[in-house]
Amino acid sequence: MTLTLLLDILAPSVLLAQSIGRWGNFINQEAHGGPVTRQFLENLYLPEFIINQMNINGTYYHPTFLYESLWSLVGFVLLLLLRNKNQFLRQGEVALSYVIWYSAGRFFIEGMRTDSLWIGDFLRVSQGLSLVLFVAALGVWMYRRYYTYPPVPYYKDEPKLSKAAK
């Protein structure tokens, strides 16, 4: 098994773990966005327990943990679908898709958070890192697609069925 194939296998699971892990931010009332009204949260059709937990010291906040959790969950499903369509992808491209997907979501969701570290006065550290990772993963994908020959197939050998399975 190659490293790229191993990363392709692990990438969807990492997104699922990140989706679940964001709920720790919810429980700890951390990593939230800026202030919003209760009406805003109710218009999102959120359960009452989420709305109540987003009330911190009398102020309601954006549930950015929820946005990132749902973003990661959708990415998990998409990566599983992509991985199972092996005639389209080459080895390593599911892992690159993970980096692209997560970085894109993180870039925008990080823009809503209030507890970020800043690079100067214009960009958050996490947004800068997300931007770098997004561009790098896209660049590696394009390089591998257009400048490597022959393409690395997703599976070197197709699985062989035993006589009993046929």
Describe this structure in words.
This protein has 166 residues and is mainly alpha-helical. It has one domain. It has helices spanning 3-28, 38-43, 48-53, 64-84, 93-110, 125-147; strands at 35-36, 55-56, 59-61, 118-119, 123-124. Strand 4 and strand 5 form a beta hairpin. The radius of gyration is 20 Å and the shape is elongated.
Tell me, what's the shape?
elongated
Percentage beta strand: 5-15%
- Give the topology string: H per helix, E per strand: HEHHEEHHEEH
Structural class: mainly alpha
Oligomeric form: single chain
Q: Please give the count of helices.
A: 6
| Rounded average pLDDT | 88
Radius of gyration: 20 Å
Largest sheet: 3 strands, antiparallel
Task: Fill in the keyword field for this structure.
7% strand; elongated; 166 residues; 6 helices
List the helices and strands and how they pair.
Layout: H1 3-28, E1 35-36, H2 38-43, H3 48-53, E2 55-56, E3 59-61, H4 64-84, H5 93-110, E4 118-119, E5 123-124, H6 125-147
Antiparallel strand pairs: 1-3, 2-3, 4-5
